[in-house]
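Supplementary notes for students who missed Thursday's class. We covered one full example, reproduced here. Read the sequence, then the structure, then the short commentary at the end.
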Amino acid sequence: MSCNSCPPFGGYKFPSCFQRYGGISNKKNPGNVQTLHSLAHNVMPKFYDGVELDYYHRLAPNKFISAAWVLSHVRPAGFRFGGLYTFRVLDDFMLTPTIVGDIHPTTLAANLNILYYPFKPLRMEAVLQKPGEDTPVETQYTIEWTRPSDTWTANLYNVRNENGRCTLSVMRSITQHWAIGGELLLEWNEPKKLMTDLAFAARYSHHHYSFAATVSRQGLDVSYWQRIHPQIQMANLLAWNRSTRKTIATICYQWNFWNCAVHGMIDSDALVGFMWTKYLSHLPLQMGFSVVMSLPTDRFAFGMRFVLDPSGLRRGD
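Structure (token representation):
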């Protein structure tokens, strides 16, 4: 299948693979509550900070190594190396568990991601992050059950006896275009003190546009995404916080060309941003830069990223 309007891979995470399930259903799976606004968020620019150099090399279909060097005032600077390894390969299909990780050799800061599908509809994932030698490990565990028309998800964040946070959510398609859901938040800072909150979510979608909203006691989030041209996408986002009484509205776009992609945005705080990514035809190199500027303060940030991949892994080949 060819898609001339598909954008080049810009160093982001690929969407989840399509799954086949037995039975018949005239409703589509709505995904989970966490990805309700993903269509609009994917249009927004992903700003770089400083200079970043990435290298990827495929050793086999199920494993590759990576290295990165970052010079930044915001992100941890220095050199990191890591890779990805999938334990089982059946014909042309990679079967989980899959392990992705990297480490900073100087500070020993490390990231580890383990993904496992014991059954087709069941996803189990663990994300571990160690910022430094003297800091505790930050953890996130996910268990997700996917059916033809609904998704049940449980997330555990830094769960300990003294403190922690847990979310339980469900998203269900009620028609071909409508999906509704809810999320229960459980948070505790002391062993006997439990705080709860409830959020509701809804989405109305067609193949070329989508409207989504989430509401809780803490605030409101609304997003609208539309494909106005085979190569152009537009998105609008609105966020209101009840405690701060602050509202932020954002307009963003994405324009895909045959070998590059352009992203732009402007919000109600007069923050303007732009991102450009391109594949070089004569070198296995993807390059990109971004600029974000605050008009009221006349301050801006500029970043660049270079991805060298001789094996063509980042192109999805």
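Commentary. Residues 1-21 have pLDDT under 50 and may be disordered. Residues 60 and 85 are 9 Å apart (CA to CA). If anything here is unclear, bring it to office hours.
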